[in-house]
Amino acid sequence: xxxxxxxxxxxxxxxxxxxxxxxxxxxxxxxxxxxxxxxxxxxxxxxxxxxxxxxxxxxxxxxxxxxxxxxxxxxxxxxxxxxxxxxxxxxxxxxxxxxxxxxxxxxxxxxxxxxxxxxxxxxxxxxxxxxxxxxxxxxxxxxxxxxxxxxxxxxxxxxxxxxxxxxxxxxxxxxxxxxxxxxxxxxxxxxxxxxxxxxxxxxxxxxxxxxxxxxxxxxxxxxxxxxxxxxxxxxxxxxxxxxxxxxxxxxxxxxxxxxxxxxxxxxxxxxxxxxxxxxxxxxxxxxxxxxxxxxxxxxxxxxxxxxxxxxxxxxxxxxxxxxxxxxxxxxxxxxxxxxxxxxxxxxxxxxxxxxxxxxxxxxxxxxxxxxxxxxxxxxxxxxxxxxxxxxxxxxx
Length: 396
Fold this sequence. Notes:
By secondary structure, the chain is an alpha+beta fold. The chain is built from 10 helices and 21 strands. It has helices at 12-15, 36-41, 62-71, 91-98, 146-157, 178-186, 231-242, 254-259, 295-304, 392-395, and strands at 46-50, 53-58, 74-77, 83-87, 111-113, 116-117, 123-125, 128-133, 136-140, 162-165, 169-174, 198-203, 206-211, 220-225, 248-249, 308-315, 327-331, 334-345, 350-358, 367-370, 377-382. Strand 18 and strand 19 (350-358) form a beta hairpin. The protein starts with 11 loop residues before the first helix and ends with a helix.
């Protein structure tokens, strides 16, 4: 395939990245997005598999892509955020069962970041929810099979529902120049969107939804394609609109999302974690009228307290590549936890990341030892997010 193979570049070995889709990973079981051909044309060098679909990892040096997002604007194919659509007379009531977040104030045209929990309070997924109509909702998913979970619950819910995977494929336009790009595409109306609001729109007759959301901590938008046959047209339209702002395709930036305190499901939290452990307890609402899966378990956890916590860490030493596995965390030689994500921040000029540790090691300033491939080094527990804790940048 065009673009699937390329000459290795400086830094690839450090980052542990591949520049090709291994032949064993190919086949119809793993889906291609409507933009896949465009990502090949643009020279994408690495893909991973996410929600049973190819996700472009990167096109250029990861640090260069990071600065593109921080200083200009980047385009991502994030069709892997598969969309579960819930409709029917009881759709809103059913959706409230899935999440401990209070959705009573979620109006049509708004988005909410939510967690979906199981009966023990474990996190199944952390999607962005969009309320298109009173009883039509989308869940833009992280990497896990929420469609099957929701369908299984619906069998026993005795509600009037239809649950399906929608024919919807998002792109992200991220970075400080993203407002100019979407203004060129959709006109002045799009600039009136507040953070976590969306609107219906068209691009050259292509139906989309535009949301002021993203995975960067920068100003950004997601454009949800509603006709998979027209993916290449939409991709080209975005690139044309972005030419005055030097837009370029990149992969999702782990550097920027770690700086912003954004978690990656499957890495920083899994089904074995609850919202209290990973700092998402602000989404748990025990109002009397609320009923959701895991409510009693989360009440118990809230009352008893957690035994471990996901903390921010600064890691000493030379710049480290993006962690490819969970690094051991020790205290006085004893294994106590794991680094779930870590990377070097060019802007902070520090190695930063998250570590899951026992609660007695979660206090700010606690000294730990971590073990990346380069050997043992010191880490210090620090506040997270590392940059812009009040989210003033994306709200600007």
